[in-house]
């Protein structure tokens, strides 16, 4: 106990201090609510993918997947495979659309599609679901910490809880993204180290074949396929895949992560790389750790304790690294849940009710305070519901997220569904699901609440849709001046909501309403009435006649490259500056950034324009954490063709 | 019951198919 205990405690303290340092460092990067909640939309592919991976690498994955490996063999891989399935589906059907909406949270988008009341009502299941998911992780981390260090459950909750609280409060999504990157690497290391040690000590695959029943190497083995055979629990093949689709796709934190990515491309690739990492490390390898536990002959009271029991056999030092991997897995998922809850409560409740016209800077402090309060809730829940356990607490979050799933799919792919239909289906199913989960009937009849949450919501949505023929009138008033401003932006290449929301600093609902007005007037048209095409606008003939350009060249510039003359002027100034600064300029290089701003272009405007030009391919963003921009071949092409556009305007 | 190795093959194929579809979509909407 002596040396092993000391090394473990020192490692944990160093790790926690590192996390706090990240919180302090990223605090300086916050310059408005958008930085706090979506990291200024600066997150790149690698950071996003490792971050997403570290979310699935939760405490419940370590205990659940190794536990399944221990009892069912290779079928335990279904835990990670289900998450990977959800991530792949998301990458194809939802990620690009989510990024294009510009919404910070999922309820915000539902508010943009179905009105203010729907935004408010959906923010409840999202916030409750996130808080339950965070509490489940905190309970898991406390069990592992107290089991390995001898601390009391309360001390363990407070230690990991307060560290997450501090760094999340200080740096918001920036701190969470930064810590997730490091945590994801530790998670990968922990699986590799544990499996390599077991293979090295006991022998490779032949050892498992010799010591385990043949059913351990078949699929689904004893696990079973699921609902067609009447088993509605989470731990069946179909149950697990459905459950992860419910907890990944209609989850406001996953939405916020997608919204924080640099571009559509970064977001989509991020999800696919995360799914690949998950398939590589959290499927058969993590199930094999449980299988080794069984083959060695380790006896545990509950199969979910097998990972902890295996760690205890590791040599001094290695066990500490693996423990840090497990702690990382838990803290990343928990801090993500806190951010999801905080983002939804701030954007969908606080801003909607109290400060609809605020600037991002004015909302920084409220975002911090609300996220802080959400995390305090998580700590209190974890302390109060120690006996409920992680899986039941996680079950609540599955149930609450699943309530919004039918509305989420409808908002992107079924344009005929009306506002009132969505509001009432979510409202009634929220009440029914709450009664169902708190009656705890599901622990007796074994029908997991996620089936009730999604099922009731879907049935209600279909029934109300069939009978509801009246469209609820949206009462949001749009200022004429803002309508003109948005029309002008669309004519200058801002063809997705995300560009309009960022450049106008307005709420999503407001911008969406302004676009709807322009469509009603026949000035703007959507490419399609559903899917990705719905998210892309263009001008109609009437709109083209009304649009004002500095000259004809700007019109062809917008048509050809999707950017306007103002962007080209900026690119010219960047070109000469990049030559003096080296190959690229970082967003953190305040001296260079200050050279690019002017009286009518603040640093924030500049960053938004750079992100916009990156999305249009006119610039390239690099950098693991904070973005740096550099020229690419398309930039050079634009400058060679349109470099003198401003000079010609002056000549005119 | 199937051999676990088939589940590996199924997921590798699924990942490749996802990557191809996603890249096509990225390309389609790249400049919008």
Name the chain pair whose interface involves the most residues: A-B, 36 and 21 residues
How helix-rich are the residues of chain B, as a percent range? over 70%
Write down the overall geometry of chain B. Answer: rod-shaped
Largest sheet of chain B: none
Look at the helices and sheets of chain B and give the structural class: mainly alpha
- Terminal residue distance of chain A: 83 Å
Distance between the terminal alpha carbons of chain B, to the nearest Å? 47 Å
The radius of gyration over CA of chain A amounts to 26 Å
So what's the overall shape of chain A? globular
| Mean model confidence by pLDDT of chain A | 90
- Report the order of strands and helices of chain B: EH
Beta content of chain B comes to 5-15%
* Uncertain segments of chain A: none
Mean pLDDT of chain B, rounded to whole units? 89
